[in-house]
């Protein structure tokens, strides 16, 4: 797997893979009644990602295997939640792999890349939000050294869901 920065030329492929990976992660087959399609239609769109790509505080990184996009990272520099003591932190907004590429250690590689990138940019911590019912992701983040420090309401397809905030010092 190689990881490289996304460019505007990658927008179509990035949105396509993001929609597929997020659908696979939160599909009604795994979470009956979860409004994943509504969330995708509202937030995982070409206009939303184009705006994010144009935001100097946001970076996208693409994970590729044999030239094919298999996952991505979305990182954002902005103030962390007030409950987080360390203020010099980078948010991991999204970290996804297509389902067929999970279980190969590539999620760990993406996370390690995010941590190394944050460190190289002078940050002392990273933070993220994870849906309270996404037990596999929560377990992965805990294995990667993240600890919970609070929660917030996350709008997901017309529902208010609870995301647990997790942090890790680097």
TrEMBL record:
This is GCN5-related N-acetyltransferase. It comes from the Bacteria. InterPro entries: Acyl_CoA_acyltransferase (IPR016181), Bact_Acetyltransf (IPR050832), GNAT_dom (IPR000182). Pfam families: Acetyltransf_1 (PF00583). The keyword Protease applies. GO terms for molecular function: acyltransferase activity, transferring groups other than amino-acyl groups; aminopeptidase activity. PROSITE patterns: GNAT (PS51186). Its EC number is 3.4.11.5. Keywords: Acyltransferase, Aminopeptidase, Hydrolase, Protease, Transferase. CDD domains: NAT_SF (cd04301). Residues 1-170 form the N-acetyltransferase domain.
């Amino acid at each position: 797997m190689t990881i490289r920065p996304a460019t505007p030329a990658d927008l179509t492929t990035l949105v396509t893979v993001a929609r597929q990976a997020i659908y696979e992660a939160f599909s009604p087959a795994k979470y009956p009644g979860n409004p994943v399609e509504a969330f995708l239609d509202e937030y995982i769109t070409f206009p939303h990602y184009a705006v994010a790509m144009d935001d100097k505080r946001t970076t996208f990184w693409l994970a590729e295997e044999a030239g094919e996009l298999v996952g991505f990272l979305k990182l954002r520099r902005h103030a962390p939640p007030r409950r987080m003591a360390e203020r010099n932190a980078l948010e991991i907004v999204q970290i996804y792999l297509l389902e067929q590429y999970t279980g190969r250690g590539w999620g760990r590689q993406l996370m390690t890349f995010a941590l190394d990138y944050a460190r190289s940019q002078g940050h002392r911590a990273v933070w993220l939000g994870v849906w309270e019912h996404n037990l596999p992701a929560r377990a992965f983040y805990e294995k990667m050294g993240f600890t919970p420090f609070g929660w917030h309401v996350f709008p997901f397809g017309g529902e208010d869901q609870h995301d647990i905030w997790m942090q890790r010092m680097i």
